[in-house]
Amino acid sequence: MSDIRHSLLRRDALSAAKEVLYHLDIYFSSQLQSAPLPPLVDKGPAELLEEFLFQVPKERGVPPKRLNSLQELQLLEIMCNYFQEQTKDSVRQLIFSSLFSPQGNKADDNRMALLGKLVSMAVAVCRVPVLECAAFWLQRTPAVYCVRLARALVDDYCNLVPGSIQTLKQIFSASPRFCCQFITAVTALYDLSSDDLIPPSELLELIVSWIFEDPRLILITFLNTPIAANLPIGFLELTPLTGLIRWCVKAPLAYKRKQKASLSNGHPNTKIATDSTEGDDGDCHQLYSKLHLTVLQVLMMLQGHLTEKNLYGRLGLVPFDHVVPLVEEINRLSDELNPLNASKEIELALDRLAQALQVAMASGALLCTRDDLRTVCSRLPHNNLLQLVISGPVQQPTHGALPPGFYPHIHTPPLGYPAHPALPAHPALPAHPVQTFLPGMTFPYRPIR
Predict the structure, then answer these.
(1) How far separated are the first and last CA of the chain, in Å rounded?
(2) What is the DSSP letter of 231?
(3) DSSP code per residue over 324-345
(4) What does the DSSP 8-state code read for residue 259?
(5) CA-based angle 249:280:147, to the nearest 5?
(6) Which residues is 123 bridged to in the sheet?
(7) DSSP 66
(8) Strand pairing partners for 142?
């Protein structure tokens, strides 16, 4: 590798970066031919990548090189073209992973910045191989880095250029796997814990349109990935279900908190500002209702998929460990908002929570007992639907005369009490005489005084 490094030092930055990709391609292709398992990146190639692609000098005390904007754009084009032209998917995935897997060193900041720009460019020009590589990267990289990539894309397509969200919307049919992972990362980023972490309305509308068009999008990673019963900690979840449930449940309270904060600041006192804010929030509430319905429909699909993968009862796609902090956040928000002024929002949030918990438990996505739910939800405000869910169904004795799936009336007496003896039949009562109608007789009406 030292000879290659000396030859690269004599080149300009762009040709050196292109040469590094060429040598890396040869290296991994030969490694894959000799070993069936994916090879690890040796120290030599990793150092070449950091020095000539991410512009991190090898020698200490040497100032890092800086590419100007035009050179950076040309570098991104070189990388996009390479991944587009590489026909072997295994080599493409290995090189993408070796380029952008965090190493815990000073090159990681440059690595993440270049990754965000590369994926953003791939979205703009619809480079599907790059998007597929990014989807696998999101699946195998710690969540803290995935959130950084999601934030870069949201900044580019929701904040930087108005209307550019339509470009992001079009990749739905090009790379559904990337869309699924992007939704998972976005729900991890925007957890509604503060007003700054409420998803932008354009982003919300985008995600709802994707999921409503094809609800199975949520399950693409889960359905196409070999899965063990124990998932690694610190990575994105297999599906965005938990994050989407958090959005739907917390949204009424989070937007009420946002509205309360804006009113307390004293700025939107005019009727025009207030009406415009309520109008925007009203559109978002409709989107959250639509999203909540779709999430419940997806949860109902899961029992069959979990059974097919032999994971029913073994893998919780809605982890109970994530339900606990969600319930605590709802309780905190309910206490923070005045129940007298936010009773409708609290009721809606608890109704959605109860529905999600019930359907998730029934489908096998949430693995916990009713006693666990009672303990966790004991401090929440009272809600009739939630009480029914945590109480569970009434257990009835089997009844031989009833068909399968038919539940007897809920008010049947407990088994501890004897059945009432049959009452004797009443004797037949004599027939009442028929009253004859007399048309000439007047009705004596006396008003009450």
Answers:
(1) 116
(2) P
(3) HHHHHHHHHHHHHS-TTTSHHH
(4) H
(5) 55
(6) none
(7) -
(8) 235
429 SS3 class? coil
DSSP 53: T
E-strand stretches of 110-194: none
User: At 2, which amino acid appears?
Assistant: S
Of 246, 273, 262, 362, residue with least CA distance to 312: 362
418-441 per-position pLDDT tens digit: 445 555 665 665 555 544 444 444
Lowest mean pLDDT among 186-195, 223-232, 392-401: 392-401
User: Distance (Å, rounded) from C-alpha 78 to C-alpha 102?
Assistant: 22
pLDDT digits (tens, 9 = 90+) for 112-146: 999 999 999 999 999 999 999 999 999 999 999 99
> pTM of the entire structure?
0.83
Per-state percent for the chain, helix, strand, coil, to nearest 5: 65, 0, 35
Looking at residue 157, what DSSP letter applies? Answer: I
3-state secondary structure of 260: helix
Residue type, 421: P
Q: How many CB atoms lie within 10 A of CB 111?
A: 22
Rounded CA separation 105/57 (Å): 13
What are the backbone dihedrals phi and psi of residue 235, each rounded to the nearest 5 degrees, phi first?
-110, 170
C-alpha 276/C-alpha 294 separation (Å) is 28
Stated as kind and residue range, the H or E segment containing 92 is helix 89-100
Structure tokens at 331: 């309780």
Return all residues near 284 (Cβ < 8 A) that are at least 6 apart: 201, 204, 251, 255
Rounded CA separation 131/21 (Å) = 18
Cα 415 to the center of its chain, rounded Å: 45
* CA atoms of 328 and 313, how far apart (whole Å): 25
